């Protein structure tokens, strides 16, 4: 057997992916709309190959996602742009597949075809880092649950059709135990979305007011009181989704390396040292993400995803600052400060000044860097936990 033969030998799981790609390519025609093409990919298990058969997957290991993406590209199958439904792909889908019943899992296809855009209704004015302090109430009635409360910093709520929502169903028990997890129709009566302008000028996120919003009982994910556990599945996936995923010299480092190559007049040895140092940092964190995705193959994402998210935020802020320094006077310009409501935000689509300002949010969104460091200290390094005085007190008795 030659070396080439050995290289070409596929594992059973790889063969399943190749067969699915071939079948999907054969079932796709040029006349189909993009949405129909995405539907064919889902039906052949190529939406997320590690998900179970019937849920848009093939039940193969997570480490085959990249292999599947390569095979799809070779076969001319274009997957949907994930950035159009970041929360649907990165947070809602893995949580729904882990905890959803058959009826709830039906939304997975619409997430993949971009028919149902998701947002995440977790943060509140008094519950950001301390997510367990959520005060939005979900009160049981004969039609399901009645929701009242206010959410904040909800990315893409203005474009969303559905939300993942954490709300309090029980105030008699300590804060972590009284939460439940819901799917919410963003077009339901009583849902009001108001744009919030951020440092970049954009209104990428929103305040969301929920007034007597009726949710059918079937929209609860898991059991009453399981909200904390389920939202941790979402948050762990969120950190992996934010922290991982760029190819070598992809994302921000690609922008900065290009600026370096295009602007010899601004180069100096100090900036060169900084560029090389950050290139190495980004490469190390890319390899960490690579290892993480292999660990994912063995089960659920763990707190290690926090390391990738922390490195992503730190590197992005340093890189966007370096890009400004390498852009000379142009780096001080800004394009437009008009209030825009983007469908998706793009770090690469605008000027260095935009990237510099937008990167500030990277160390806040998906959990602040301080909280991530706490998680690494407590759950990865096993250091003693923070002193928590409210752990055993009923939510209704906590000072507000
Ligand atoms: C761009 C962007 C998009 C976002 N999108 C969404 C979204 O779609 N959906 C959603 O639900 N939320 C979203 N958020 C909200 C985000 O998750 C919260 O802002 C974040 O969890 C921090 O909460 P907070 O703003 O209430 O800050 P706080 O919790 O009030 O924290 C303030 C400061 O105190 C520090 N701190 C707090 N507690 C501790 C502690 N125990 N130890 C050490 N330091 C501590 C924090 O790290 C921070 O620096 C988004 C935020 C941003 C910036």
From TrEMBL:
SUPFAM superfamilies in the cross-refs: Acyl-CoA dehydrogenase C-terminal domain-like, Acyl-CoA dehydrogenase NM domain-like
Q: Identify the cofactor(s).
A: FAD
Supply the InterPro entries for this chain. Acyl-CoA_Oxase/DH_mid-dom, Acyl-CoA_Oxase/DH_mid-dom_sf, AcylCo_DH-like_C, AcylCo_DH/oxidase_C, AcylCoA_DH/ox_N_sf, AcylCoA_DH/oxidase_NM_dom_sf, Mycobact_Acyl-CoA_DH
Q: Which residues form the Acyl-CoA dehydrogenase/oxidase C-terminal domain?
A: 225-381
State the UniProt keywords alphabetically.
FAD, Flavoprotein, Oxidoreductase
Domain (Acyl-CoA oxidase/dehydrogenase middle): residue spans on this chain: 119-212
Q: Which family does it belong to?
A: Belongs to the acyl-CoA dehydrogenase family.
By its UniProt entry, which PANTHER family does this protein fall under? ACYL-COA DEHYDROGENASE, ACYL-COA DEHYDROGENASE FADE34
Protein's recorded name: Alkylation response protein AidB-like acyl-CoA dehydrogenase
């Amino acid at each position: 057997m030659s070396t080439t033969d050995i290289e070409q030998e596929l594992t059973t799981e790889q063969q399943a992916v190749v067969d699915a790609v071939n079948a999907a390519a054969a079932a796709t025609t040029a006349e189909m709309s993009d949405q129909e093409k995405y539907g064919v990919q889902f039906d052949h298990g190529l939406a997320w190959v590690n998900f179970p058969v019937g849920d848009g997957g093939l039940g193969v290991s997570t480490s085959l996602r990249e292999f599947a993406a390569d095979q799809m590209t070779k076969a001319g199958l274009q997957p949907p742009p994930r950035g159009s439904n970041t929360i649907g792909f990165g947070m809602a889908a893995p949580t729904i597949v882990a905890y959803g019943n058959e009826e709830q899992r039906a939304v997975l296809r619409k997430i993949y075809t971009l028919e149902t855009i998701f947002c995440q209704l977790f943060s509140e004015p008094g519950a950001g880092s301390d997510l367990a302090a959520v005060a939005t109430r979900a009160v049981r009635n004969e039609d399901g649950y009645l929701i009242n409360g206010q959410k904040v910093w909800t990315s893409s709520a203005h474009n969303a059709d559905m939300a993942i929502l954490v709300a309090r169903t029980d105030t008699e028990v300590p804060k972590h135990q009284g939460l439940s997890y819901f799917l919410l129709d963003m077009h339901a009566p009583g849902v009001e979305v108001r744009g919030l302008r951020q440092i970049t000028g954009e209104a990428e996120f929103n305040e969301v007011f929920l007034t007597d919003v009726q949710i059918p009982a079937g929209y609860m994910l898991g059991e009453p009181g399981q909200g904390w556990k389920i939202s941790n599945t979402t948050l762990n996936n969120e950190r992996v989704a934010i922290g991982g995923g760029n190819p070598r010299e992809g994302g921000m480092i690609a922008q900065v390396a290009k600026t370096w190559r295009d602007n010899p007049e601004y180069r100096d040895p100090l900036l060169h040292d900084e560029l090389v140092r950050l290139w190495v940092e980004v490469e190390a964190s890319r390899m960490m993400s690579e290892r993480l995705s292999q660990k994912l193959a063995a089960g659920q994402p763990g707190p290690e995803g926090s390391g990738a998210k922390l490195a992503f935020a730190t590197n992005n802020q340093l890189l966007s600052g370096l890009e400004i320094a390498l852009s000379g006077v142009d780096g001080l310009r800004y394009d437009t400060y008009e209030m825009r409501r983007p469908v998706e935000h793009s770090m690469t689509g605008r000027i260095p000044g935009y990237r510099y300002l937008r990167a500030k949010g990277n160390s806040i969104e998906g959990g602040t860097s301080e909280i991530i460091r706490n998680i690494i200290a407590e759950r990865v390094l096993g250091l003693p936990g923070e002193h928590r005085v409210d752990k055993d007190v009923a939510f209704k008795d906590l000072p507000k």
